[in-house]
Amino acid sequence: VIPKTIRHAMNLAILLGQRYLWIDRLCICQDDQESKATDIDMMGDVYNSAIFIIIAAN
After folding, report:
1. Which spans are transmembrane here (predicted)?
2. Residues 23, 12 contacting (CB under 8 angstroms)
């Protein structure tokens, strides 16, 4: 089951004509702390390369 917040982000991306959606909780390995730390260090690059950013406020 896809959480409602992610479904809303997916629908918004489609409405804005985007094919791809990067969701940190899904795209960053949460089980490997070393990998997670490396990925978190790269998040600035991800955000800087983004066409737009969606932040869930709840």
Report:
1. none
2. no
Backbone φ/ψ region at 51: left (φ over 0), alpha (ψ -120 to 50), beta: alpha
Q: Dihedral (C-alpha) 45, 42, 47, 11: value to the nearest 10 degrees?
A: 130
- pLDDT digit string, tens, across residues 4-56: 999 999 999 999 999 999 998 899 999 999 999 999 999 999 999 999 999 98
Token couple for 13? 């991306």
What's CA 58's distance to the chain center, in Å?
Answer: 16
In sequence order, the 6+-apart residues with CB closer than 8 A to the CB of 53 are 47
